[in-house]
Amino acid sequence: MEQRAGSFQKDNPAVGRFLKQRCTLLWHCFVTLGAAVYLQDGPDDRHAPGPLRLGRPTRHAASRLAAQIQVQARAKHNDGQKTVIITGASSGLGLATAKKLAQTGEWHVIMACRDFAKAELAAKNAGMSPANFTIMHLDLASMESTKQFARAFRASGRRLDVLVCNAAVYLPTAKEPTFTADGFELSVATNHLGHFLLVNLLLEDLKKAAAPRCIIVGSITGNTNTVAGNVPPKADLGELSGLVMGGTGQTASMIDAKEFDGAKAYKDSKVCNMLTMRELHRRYHDETGITFASLYPGCIASTGLFRNHVQLFRTLFPPFQKYITKGFVSEDEAGERLAQVVSDPRYNKSGVYWSWSRESGIFENEVSEEVSDAVKGERLWELSEKLVNLKVAEKALQTA
């Protein structure tokens, strides 16, 4: 067949030229489309199992994107509204919270999301008024994207009243780790290191608000003083050996440097989130007046966070939580709870881990022994600061 095709093209040079032109055109279309997807969101297989290393957008493309975002944000600037940044606001808890706050008209929500088109459609479907939200690109798995976001937000001229660190990836069935372009395992990069860098870069912006807050979403699975926190594999950062290795240029798939476990990687990252909140409170609350808090809004069993779990789990988990444990919380109710912690003057206490019960409503919950370990919290901070090259990032932002 190959010989016949070759002979046909040889005997009919016009047809051969036509086929070559069409193939060339098709190839350029694929390249252009691939580049567009890559520059907007990164590779689509970022959550695929296997020892994958992810790419990141070029500095020129990122600068172009930042300029577009600044124009959009300035166009919607309203001095009468407070501003809240919510990471991961295109679905689940983040979207539900964005909707609740935007509906009041008192808040302008910056939806910080990796997938711009997805966020735009989600906001439209949620009935959010375009006057009350702005979508800004942020891929927390990329330290460069996180720095670009901070630069773009500051250049927009908006004040920042509240920062909500909500975005997370959960890869419970992954057999092999996925590594980002910066060399970090995807869960710890997105859930912890990206947020750690973002909070630190936006501290100066938060300081200027009248009643600033920084909320980092925690998880019951990261607290081993609970029944859910004792379901294997349990969260345990060990001696932070994996982060130590990362600081020396080595690659570790887990924070404790042990064998990779996707479910544990998520739980460990949530411990890091809660430790970071407590360390932020210790370092900056008295000096700046910023309220730092964490929360667990309840078991949102039907959330897209579980999209990478096995089908049987996704089928059985929601009714189990709804009818057996009675711990089920809808995305809408969870969003209302987080919006409460963002905006209610009664919940401005710093250093607190908020939870809810059906009987008493919101209350200050206790954290596990590991989360309350101040020495480990300080050590985690020091290692994270080094891994994200914080001093250099802060200096670059100041001179931008």
UniProtKB/TrEMBL annotation:
One of its GO terms (molecular function) is protochlorophyllide reductase activity. InterPro entries: NAD(P)-bd_dom_sf, Prochl_reduct, SDR_fam. Keywords: Chlorophyll biosynthesis, Chloroplast, NADP, Oxidoreductase, Photosynthesis, Plastid, Transit peptide. The keyword Hydrolase does not apply. Its EC number is 1.3.1.33. It is found in: Plastid, Chloroplast. GO terms for cellular component: chloroplast. Its main location: plastid. Pathway: Porphyrin-containing compound metabolism; chlorophyll biosynthesis. It is an enzyme of class 1 (oxidoreductase). The keyword Iron does not apply. It catalyses: chlorophyllide a + NADP(+) = protochlorophyllide a + NADPH + H(+). SUPFAM superfamilies: NAD(P)-binding Rossmann-fold domains. GO terms for biological process: chlorophyll biosynthetic process; photosynthesis. Belongs to the short-chain dehydrogenases/reductases (SDR) family. POR subfamily. Phototransformation of protochlorophyllide (Pchlide) to chlorophyllide (Chlide). PANTHER family: PROTOCHLOROPHYLLIDE REDUCTASE A, CHLOROPLASTIC (PTHR44419:SF19), PROTOCHLOROPHYLLIDE REDUCTASE C, CHLOROPLASTIC (PTHR44419). This is NADPH-protochlorophyllide oxidoreductase. It comes from [Myrmecia] bisecta. The lineage of its organism: Eukaryota, Viridiplantae, Chlorophyta, core chlorophytes, Trebouxiophyceae.
